[in-house]
Design goal:
The chain contains eight helices and no strands. The longest helix has 69 residues, at 175-243. The protein has helices at residues 2-34, 40-67, 71-77, 79-90, 94-110, 117-140, 151-162, 175-243. The chain is mostly helical. Helix 2 (40-67) packs parallel to helix 5. Residues 214-241 form a coiled coil. Residues 130-203 form the Potassium channel domain. One of its GO terms (biological process) is monoatomic ion transmembrane transport. It comes from Streptomyces africanus.
């Protein structure tokens, strides 16, 4: 029990710093893509920041595992965290580091009870749009047949793909770009389902609340009516007594 409480304390104390590192990762990932003419020193610094952030999340997983009361259970229930930590080690690609960091941030966000569903959905949408745009731009910009050449094109393509509109004016031509498109489409459908379910649940809760209030008012009116009838009966009885 002591180890479990230590794990929870660690997660609470490290959540904000890890999110701050995730923002640093976003900047480091975006700079070489948005500024392809950046100097080699800038690119090296950005790469180092990416690896440092990934290393921080990997260290966080290791410490949480060490503090867990039942480590095998922790591994089984946090298999996505482990996969995200191991993913960049098999192939040191920037795209894999981006995917693993997104997964780790998402897993840590779900552990936070104070983050509401709406905030999480909005953050997920913004994060997917940003990283999807940067990722597709990085793989499609140098493609001979590619038509996504600027950040504006990439953002427009990501938005239409996530909303499953798909105008077709911009589309990936590489295999990796099409894999990104599939991921964005599935993510967009999932997030749309979450938003729709959240709105439906709000309306249902509102209707139930109104229904309860209506039943309460109806019951109050019924009780008042019965009291009035009883008073009328008493008044009639008093009148009959006075006449006699």
């Amino acid at each position: 029990m002591h180890q479990k409480s230590a794990q929870l304390r660690w997660e609470q104390h490290t959540q904000r710093p890890l999110f701050g590192l995730a923002l640093a990762f976003a900047v480091a990932y975006a700079v070489p893509i948005v500024r392809p003419d950046a100097s080699r020193d800038v690119v090296d610094v950005c790469t180092a920041v990416e690896w440092v952030v990934w290393g921080a999340f990997a260290l966080d997983y290791g410490i949480r595992l060490a503090l867990a009361e039942q480590r095998l259970v922790f591994v089984r229930t946090h298999w996505l965290d482990l996969g995200a930590v191991l993913l960049p080690m098999f192939q040191p690609m920037r795209l894999l580091r981006m995917v693993s960091t997104l997964l780790l941030v998402g897993q840590r966000a779900r552990m936070a009870s104070q983050i509401r569903l709406t905030t999480y959905v909005v953050g997920a949408v913004v994060g997917l749009l940003m990283f999807g745009s940067l990722a597709v731009l990085s793989v499609e910009r140098d493609s001979p047949d590619g038509n996504i050449r600027t950040l504006g094109d990439a953002v427009w393509w990501s938005f239409t793909t996530m909303t499953t509109v798909g105008y077709g004016d911009h589309a990936p031509t590489t295999g990796l770009g099409r894999m990104l498109a599939v991921g964005l489409m599935l993510s967009g459908i999932a997030l749309l389902g979450v938003v729709t379910a959240n709105i439906a649940a709000w309306f249902i809760a509102r209707f139930e609340k109104d229904d309860v209030e209506e039943r309460r008012q109806t019951e109050a009116i019924r009780e008042l009516t019965e009291e009035v009838r009883a008073l009328r009966g008493e008044v009639a009885a008093l009148k009959g007594t006075s006449v006699e």
